Amino acid sequence: MIVPIGPEIDLHSFRPQEFGPVVVEYLAEAYAKGFRDVVLIHGKGLGIQRENVRKILAKTPTVESFQDAPYGWGGKGATLVHFKEKL
How far is residue 12 from each of residues 47, 79, 83, measured CA to CA in Å? Predict the structure, then answer.
């Protein structure tokens, strides 16, 4: 599967079984391309996808921090990720 690499990714179009691998691949590629911050759009819903995204982020060694995106960028329906600086 080809995942477009930009400053954000909308995860709504991926099936549940693709979700985890897509997030992992996207994070690795975004970090490799030198992005310092990215936004993962997962939607509000019941919060299941948000929690799944955050479990992955917590285990990703290149992620320095993450939080709800600012209101104009999706608020609780998106997560803003800040990568560690490359050495």
Answer: 13, 14, 23
